[in-house]
Specification:
The chain is of the alpha+beta class. The protein is built from 2 helices and 3 strands, in the order H-E-E-H-E. Helices cover 43% and strands 28% of the residues. The two termini are 22 Å apart.
């Protein structure tokens, strides 16, 4: 499951964030709670819209692809 999540982040989420000078790194998946843990960096690290980015881009994509994913959380 983690490898599939990483690939999806790499192919579908990262390109969007890179267009704005930011990046996202996969940090883990809590299967029990359905939480994908990521680290936002670059422009995303200090952006006031980072939480919106997580829910509107990363979380939306991952929830659509994987029923196991309930939330995406920035740990960085």
């Amino acid at each position: 499951m983690e490898n599939k999540i990483k690939e999806t982040i790499k192919k579908e989420v990262s390109p969007v964030l890179e267009q704005h000078g930011g990046f996202i790194e996969f940090a883990g998946f809590d299967e029990e709670k359905g939480i994908v843990k990521v680290k936002l960096g670059g422009a995303c690290a200090s952006c006031p819209y980072a939480s919106s980015t997580l829910t509107e881009i990363a979380e939306k994509v991952l929830k659509e692809k994987f029923s196991e994913v309930k939330k995406v959380e920035n740990i960085g």
